[in-house]
What we know:
Blueprint lengths: L4 H13 L4 E2 L24 H5 L8 E9 L16 E10 L4 H15 L7 E6 L3 H11 L7 E3 L11 E2 L4 E12 L20 E14 L5 E14 H9 L8 H14 L7 H22 L8 H19 L7 H12 L5 H4 L1 H35 L18 H7 L3
Parallel strand pairs: 1-2, 4-5
Antiparallel strand pairs: 2-3, 3-9, 4-7, 6-7, 7-8, 8-9
Helix pairs in contact: 3-4, 6-7, 6-9, 7-8, 7-9, 7-11, 8-11, 9-11
The protein binds glycine.
Amino acid sequence: MNTGVNDLRRAYLEFFESKDHLCLNSFSLVPQNDNSLLLINAGMAPLKPYFTGQEIPPRRRVTTCQKCVRTGDIDNVGKTARHLTFFEMLGNFSFGDYFKHEAIAWSWEFLTKVLELDPNRLYPSIYGEDEEAFEIWTKEVGVAPERITRFYRDPETGECDNFWEHGAGPCGPCSEIYYDRGEKYGCGKPDCKVGCDCDRYMEVWNNVFTQFNGDGHGGYEELAQKNIDTGMGLERLAVVMQDVDSVFDIDTMKAIRDKICEMSGKKYQVDALDDVSIRLITDHIRSSTFLVSDGVTPSNEGRGYVLRRLIRRAAKHGRALGIDGLFMAKLSETVIIECKDGYPELWEKREFIFKTLTAEEEQFNKTIDKGLEILAKMEEELKASGKSLRHLELRSFQVRTHSSFTILTDSL
Length: 412
Ligand code: GLY
C-alpha cells in the first residue's frame, strides 16, 4: 500500500468506517466549552462529554484524525527525532459500546492486515495487573506471553506509562503496541527492550480503556459506561511505514524541510546547528499555520501567546539560517499544499493565514532590528570610551553562537 501520510490517514479512517464508526472531521484546535485546556492536545480531548455521558454522541462509535498542539516539550523540538508541537492523532472511540476485546483485535488487524506490518516485530504492553488485556492478547490474538511487557506504577511518583491521563477528565489503563524498528535504530545496550528510551522500539498504538474520571490530583471515579479511546500518532506511524530516521523525514515534513533548505541555501545534514533550526522551523510553521487557520491570532496571552512564541521562534531560526526577509507566509503555503487533503480549511483560509503570519513576522523583525541598532550604538559608545563589547558579538547573525540572539529573544 501507499505509505504517504495522506494515504495512511485515509486508510485508518476507512478501516474504522468499515467497523461501523462515524468518521468526524478534526475538531478545532481551540477547545469549545472546556476551560481546563488552552489547546486541544489529544484526539479524545474534544470528545470528553461523550466519555462522561454528559452529552449524547452522534454515534457510539466514532473515528477521527485530530489536530493536536502540545508545547510542554517545546525546548526539545528540533533537537530530537520525535518531538513536535503539532501532530495528528488518529483515534477510534467507543462511548459505552465495544470495549477491550474489539479494540485490541482491531488494532492488531489494522497493523498486521491492512498495513501488513510483520507481527513478529510488534510487541504489546499492558497496565501492570490488567489480566483481562493479557488474556485477550495471548488467547484471542495469539501473541506469545513473553512478548508482552507489563508496565507498573512507579511506587514513588504513582506514575505509570500504561495509565493514560492528561490532567483532569476521562482516563484509564491502556495497552500500547510497540514496533521493533531494528538494531540499526537501537542504543546497543544489552538490556535494550520495549520501554527503552532509544529509537528502536517505537510506540505506534495506544488502546486506552477509558473507565475512570480523574480529578487531576490522583482521585478517580468509575464512569457509568466503559469506553475506548485509541491514540495513534500519524507522524510516528509514517516513520515506521516509510522506514525513515525521524518525523522530520516523512513525506509531508520533508517537503517543508526541503523548502526551508531552498529558501536558506542550506543543505540538510551538513551542519548540526543548522539542522536544529531547519527541524524547528519545519515543526513551528505547521503549528502556526494550523493555529491561525483555527482563528488564533498572535497576542501576549493565552493561545495567542503560544502562537506568537511559535512564529517568533521560527522567524529567529530563519534569520539564523540566513534567510533574507519575510519567509513564514511563503513556507506556510507548502504546509497548506501538503496538508489540505486532510484539512481543506487550510486552503480556504490561506489568505488570512498568509496575512497573519506576515504581520507578526514583520513586527518581530522590526523589534529585532531596533534592538540591534541600540546594541550597535552601545558598542560604538563603549569603543569610543576605550572598552569593548566582545562577549555580545552582535555584528552579524551569521555568528552562530546564538548567544547574541538569545539576549534579544530569550523570552521566546
Ligand atoms: N488518548 C490516547 C493517546 O493519546 O494516546
